[in-house]
Design goal:
By secondary structure, the protein is α+β, with helices and mostly antiparallel strands. It folds into two domains: about 140 residues, Penicillin-binding protein 2a (Domain 2), CATH 3.90.1310; about 350 residues, 3-Layer(aba) Sandwich (Beta-lactamase), CATH 3.40.710. About 35% of the residues lie in helices and about 20% in strands. It contains 17 helices and 20 strands. The strands form seven sheets. Strands 1, 2, 3, 4 and 7 form a five-stranded mixed sheet that branches. The chain has a five-stranded antiparallel sheet with strand order 9-8-16-15-14, sandwiched between helices. It has a two-stranded antiparallel sheet with strand order 5-6. A hairpin with a 5-residue loop joins strand 14 and strand 15. The longest helix is centred in the first third of the chain and has 51 residues. The radius of gyration is 42 Å and the shape is elongated. It starts with 8 loop residues before the first helix and ends with a strand.
Length: about 600
C-alpha cells in the first residue's frame, strides 16, 4: 500500500527557498482530497437513490395492475394453498338412438357456511330455514354458534335459492360451483338410466358418479376424458319409450296391478328399443333404497331385469319347438291329453277339459298343461335342460345395466322328470322377462340366439343357432294361431299379424306355497308373425279385472289387451305399415327368410 504524504516535499522545499508558507500548500492539498471524496460519495448516493426509485416504480406498476385485474374480474372464493386431490367434474352425455338427450350436465352451486365469518348467525339461520323448509332452524343456530368452522348446508341449490341466500347478506354463507346430472325427461327410462350422485367433494368442485343403471355400468366411460366427451348412445328410442310407458301405466291402472314391466326388442340386432318397469321414480330426485318390506315393492326395483318370476305357459312353445327340432313330432302329431296326468303323488290338470287328444299345434293354441308335460316326457330332462341353457335361461339377465347381473334364474336343485314336466309349462323355473324376450327372439329371427343390448348396434348380431329355420317358422305359425284362434284373441291388431303366448302363473308366497288369488300374468309376442321384426313382452304383477260378471286374472284378459294396445301405438312409430297377412296356397305357407 502506498501512503500519500500530507506534505508534498516536491513543492514544499522550493516554497521554503522562496520564503513562502508551506502550511498553505498542505491546506490546499487537503482541500483537493476532500473534494474528490465528496464527488465519489455523491455519485454513490445518487446511484442508490436511482435503484430505489426504480424499485418503487416497479412495485407500484405491479400492485396497480393487480388491483385493476381484480376490479374487472368476477369474485370467487380463494383456493386452498395446499395441494389436494384433483376432482374430475366432467361427465359425458347419454343420448338415445336418434341422438336425443337422456342425461346431461347442469351447472349449479352448493351452499356451505363458515361460522367464524358470520355476522349474525341467528338471522342467517332464520333466513335459511325460510328458504329451505326442510332445514331445522334450531339445529342451524346450534351449528353456527358452536365450535364448527365449516359445514355443508345444501349440496345443490337452484339459481333462485342462490339469489335468496345471497340477499341475506351474511359473509359466512358461501357458494361453491357444482356440475350436477340432469335428466330432462324426468321419469322416462328411469330404470335404464339409474341415476348419479356426488362422489369426492370439495368446496370448488364435486365428482359426479353413477349409482345405478347405465350411469353406473358405464361410469368409467362417461368419466373418461380421453373419450373427447363423446356421448354414450343407447338403443332406446325416446318417442317409443314414452309411448310404452304411457300405455303400460294406463294398463296397470286399468287392470288393478301392483306393478308392470314391458320390453320391446329388435329380434336380429338384440337392441332393446324400449323397456319399462312400473312403479317408477324420477332420477333427478332418486329415492333412498328401502330398509324394510319386500325389495320388489320399491319403485327402484327393475321388474324387467331384476324380477325373476315363474312365467307360466309362455314356456310351452319351447317344448313344442324342441320336439319339432329333434324330429320327435310335427305340428300335426296327436298328443294324449287325458287327465289328470299323475306322477307319483302329484297331479297335472288342464284349465279346461279339451278331450282325449290334441295335435301339437292345438296343445299350444289351447295351452294344455297335460299335453305339454307329455311332450316334455318324450324329450327328456337332460335334453330339455340343454335346450333351455342354449336359450340363456341359466345365466344372469343378459343386459348391460348393473342391476341385471344380480338377477340369477331360480332352477330346481334336481332336474327330475317331474321338474321337466312342470318346467315345460313354466312352473318350477323362475326367469326375468328379459330372458323371455331373448328366447322368443330366437324363434322370431329364424333360430339364432341374440343377446339383448342397451347399446345401439350397427347391424344384426346373430349368435349361435339354437334351432333350425324350419322349426322356428313352425313355432311362429303356432304362436300366430294362439292369437287368431286361442287364448290371446284380444291380442289381435289388424295389419300387424301378432303372434304370441299367454302365461298365468300363481304367485309364490315368501315362505313357500302359492297364493290362490294372485298371479303373474305375461304375454310374450312377436310381430308381424310371418316376418317378425320385434318381440314384445308384457308382464303384470297381481292383475285383477272384473268383467262379464266375474273377476279375471289370467293373461288373456289382462296382459294381452295391454300388449295389443302397445303394438297398436308403437308399430307405426317403428316404421311398420299395416299389411295384409300372407295366406296359404295348396298347403304351402308364404314366409320371409
Amino acid at each position: 500500500m502506498i501512503r500519500t504524504p500530507l506534505r508534498p516535499l516536491a513543492r514544499i522545499l522550493p516554497a521554503r527557498e522562496k520564503g513562502e508558507n508551506p502550511d498553505a500548500i498542505e491546506r490546499e492539498n487537503i482541500r483537493q482530497r476532500h473534494e474528490e471524496m465528496q464527488v465519489r460519495t455523491r455519485a454513490r448516493a445518487e446511484s442508490r437513490l436511482l435503484v430505489l426509485g426504480l424499485s418503487f416504480l416497479c412495485a407500484f406498476v405491479v400492485i396497480g395492475g393487480r388491483m385493476a385485474l381484480m376490479a374487472t374480474s368476477e369474485p370467487s372464493e380463494p383456493l386452498a394453498s395446499a395441494a389436494g386431490t384433483v376432482i374430475a367434474n366432467q361427465r359425458a352425455d347419454i343420448v338415445d338412438r336418434e341422438g336425443r338427450i337422456l342425461a346431461t350436465n347442469f351447472e349449479t352451486h352448493s351452499l356451505y357456511a363458515q361460522p367464524p365469518l358470520m355476522v349474525d348467525p341467528m338471522a342467517a339461520a332464520k333466513g335459511l330455514a325460510s328458504i329451505f323448509p326442510d332445514l331445522d332452524e334450531n339445529r342451524l343456530i346450534k351449528d353456527f354458534t358452536g365450535k364448527r368452522k365449516f359445514l355443508w348446508i345444501k349440496k345443490k341449490i337452484s339459481p333462485e335459492q342462490k339469489q335468496a341466500v345471497h340477499d341475506l347478506g351474511d359473509p359466512g354463507l358461501l357458494f361453491g360451483p357444482r356440475e350436477m346430472r340432469l335428466y330432462p325427461n324426468g321419469r322416462l327410462a328411469a330404470h335404464v338410466l339409474g341415476g348419479a350422485s356426488f362422489g369426492k367433494e370439495g368446496v370448488n368442485s364435486a365428482e359426479v358418479i353413477g349409482v345405478a343403471g347405465v350411469e353406473k355400468q358405464f361410469d368409467r366411460y362417461l368419466r373418461d376424458p380421453s373419450n373427447g366427451n363423446r356421448p354414450l348412445q343407447l338403443s332406446l328410442d325416446l318417442t317409443i319409450q314414452a309411448a310404452m310407458e304411457r300405455v303400460l301405466y294406463g294398463g296397470m291402472r286399468l287392470m288393478n296391478a301392483k306393478g308392470a314391466a314391458a320390453i320391446l326388442m329388435d329380434v336380429k340386432t338384440g337392441e332393446v328399443v324400449a323397456v319399462s318397469s312400473l312403479p317408477s321414480f324420477d332420477p333427478n330426485d332418486r329415492p333412498r333404497p328401502p330398509t324394510k318390506g319386500e325389495p320388489g315393492d320399491s319403485p327402484l326395483f327393475n321388474r324387467s331385469v331384476q324380477g325373476v318370476y315363474e312365467l307360466g305357459s309362455t314356456f310351452k312353445i319351447f317344448a313344442a319347438a324342441q320336439a319339432l327340432d329333434l324330429g320327435l313330432m310335427n305340428p300335426d302329431t296327436m298328443v294324449n291329453i287325458r287327465g289328470p296326468l299323475q306322477w307319483g303323488k302329484f297331479k297335472i290338470r288342464d284349465f279346461h277339459n279339451y278331450g282325449n287328444a290334441l295335435s301339437l299345434t292345438k296343445v299350444i293354441v289351447k295351452s294344455s298343461n297335460i299335453g305339454t308335460a307329455r311332450v316334455a316326457q318324450l324329450i327328456g330332462a337332460k335334453r330339455q335342460k340343454q335346450f333351455l341353457a342354449a336359450l340363456g335361461m341359466f345365466d344372469p339377465t343378459p343386459f348391460e345395466i348393473v342391476e341385471a347381473g344380480g338377477a340369477q334364474p331360480l332352477l330346481p336343485k334336481q332336474w327330475s322328470e317331474l321338474s321337466a314336466m312342470t318346467i315345460s309349462y313354466g312352473h318350477g323355473i323362475s326367469t326375468s322377462p328379459m330372458h323371455l324376450a331373448a328366447a322368443y327372439s330366437a324363434i322370431a329371427n329364424g333360430g339364432h340366439y341374440v343377446s339383448p343390448t342397451i347399446l345401439k348396434q350397427d347391424g344384426p348380431q346373430l349368435g349361435p343357432r339354437v334351432m333350425s329355420q324350419s322349426t322356428a317358422a313352425a313355432a311362429r305359425r303356432m304362436l300366430r294361431k294362439v292369437v287368431s284362434e286361442g287364448t290371446a284373441s284380444f291380442g289381435e291388431v289388424p295389419g300387424y299379424a301378432v303372434g304370441g303366448k299367454t302365461g298365468s302363473a300363481d304367485k309364490p308366497k315368501p315362505r313357500g306355497g302359492y297364493y290362490d288369488d294372485k298371479v303373474i300374468a305375461t304375454f310374450a309376442s312377436l310381430f308381424p308373425a310371418h316376418d317378425p321384426k320385434y318381440v314384445l313382452v308384457v308382464t303384470l304383477d297381481e292383475p285383477e279385472v272384473f268383467t262379464l260378471g266375474e273377476t279375471r286374472r289370467t293373461a288373456g284378459w289382462t296382459a294381452v289387451p295391454v300388449a295389443a294396445e302397445l303394438v297398436r301405438r308403437v308399430a307405426p312409430l317403428l316404421g311398420l305399415r299395416p299389411q295384409i297377412e300372407p295366406g296359404q296356397f295348396g298347403g304351402v305357407t308364404l314366409t320371409s327368410n
